[in-house]
Amino acid sequence: MKPRGLWACGYGGVSLLGLAVFGMPDRPWILAWLLGAVFVAGWRSEQPIARTLFDWLPVLLILAAYDIIRLQAPSLIPQAHLQPQLGFDEFIGFGTAPTVHLQRALFRSSHPSVFDYVCLVVYTSHFVAALAVAVVLYVRARARFARYAFTFLACSLAGFATYVVYPAVPPWMASVRSALPPTVRIPDVLWRHLHVEILTKVFSGNPRYSNPVGAIPSEHAAYPLLFLLLFWAVASPRWRVVLVGYVAAMAFVLVYFAEHYVFDELMGFAYAVVAFVVVGRVIAAYAARSGRTEPTAVTDRDDQPAGSAGREREPITRRSDDR
Fold first, then answer.
1. Pairing mode, strands 293-295 and 317-319
2. Is the peptide bond before 84 cis (omega within 30 degrees of 0)?
3. Which of 215, 213, 220, 258 is nearest to 98 (CA)?
4. What number of CA atoms fall less than 13 Å from residue 178's CA on the CB side?
5. Residue 314: how many CA atoms within 13 Å on its side-chain side?
6. Neighbours of 10 (CB within 10 A)
């Protein structure tokens, strides 16, 4: 029997033994088992489906980790902190948090404007943009997919760990607790106006559907900055404007929607920068040890069709021994 088969049999045997001794596991253990199964099946595998699942393990780990943290939300809500985020925002808002200023000036809950729905599109893009870009990158520049996936993984897991260690009250919840002047969670209002029941439940603050105290750092703010950091080196001037605009638009919407304080966003930016730098250095160190070429940007292409040099950007690489 090949080593792969031995590993698979061993994993299956240990799993059955655990099932016999401890009974049916709860959801977190099932998720961990599934991730382990993907690892065992895909490690150095030439089977396309197994290898693809293995390549996507960082993304699957992000989804599984978020689900596990969400399950802990009921126990985290009573421990959630109001400070320092509230005090910081009141300081920069000259005594009143920017969320309160923005909603007083712009939002009417009985008559949402077109502007509010445009903001909703920006806000909702968080849930699809990272995954959509990952798919495109995996298809068109697979050798650079790992840098992208592991950077998002590092930022996400650091954020999730902080949610457990320091659960934080977002602006809309601070208003519910009378710690902040009245604000509303605008996505909840807009989904109700659109009669989208399931999304209304998700944004209602019910911990069954999301983690309402996962506020510091703001992953919503961190992800757009990760796009900017990862793609800036190869982006055209027009796309650089888009990248900067996306960061700014998301930052505005999060505060306006009472989802995050400015403080949360600054923490999200910090986590994004650290993840980008650390993962980049780890990959560079690995490339130096293995003697491989190291891409300088995640969007460099490995393979270009013959005669395409005039139409596509040339790969920009450097050898690790040239530094």
1. antiparallel
2. yes
3. 258
4. 0
5. 6
6. 11
Classify the phi-psi angles of 307: left when phi > 0, otherwise alpha if psi is within -120 to 50, otherwise beta.
Answer: left
Please report the sign of the dihedral spanned by the C-alpha atoms of residue 70, residue 73, residue 75, residue 81: positive
- Give CA torsion, residues 290, 296, 297, 300, to 10 deg: -80
The crossing angle, in degrees rounded to 10, of helices 85-92 and 98-106 is 60
Contact indicator for 121, 128 with CB cutoff of 8 Å = no
Write the DSSP assignment of 236-248 as a string of letters: -HHHHHHHHHHHH
**For residue 168, what is the DSSP state?**
B
pLDDT truncated to tens, each residue of the chain (323 aa)? 566 666 666 666 766 666 666 666 666 667 776 777 776 766 667 777 777 887 888 888 888 888 888 888 888 999 999 999 999 999 999 999 999 999 999 999 889 999 999 999 999 999 899 999 999 999 988 878 989 999 999 999 999 999 999 999 999 999 999 999 999 999 989 988 898 877 777 665 566 667 889 999 999 999 999 999 999 999 999 999 999 999 999 999 999 999 999 999 999 999 999 999 999 999 988 888 876 655 545 544 444 333 333 444 444 444 444 43
- Long-range CB contacts (< 8 A, 24+ apart) of 193-201? 193/112
d(CA 37, CA 21): 20
Distance CA 198, CA 51 (A): 34
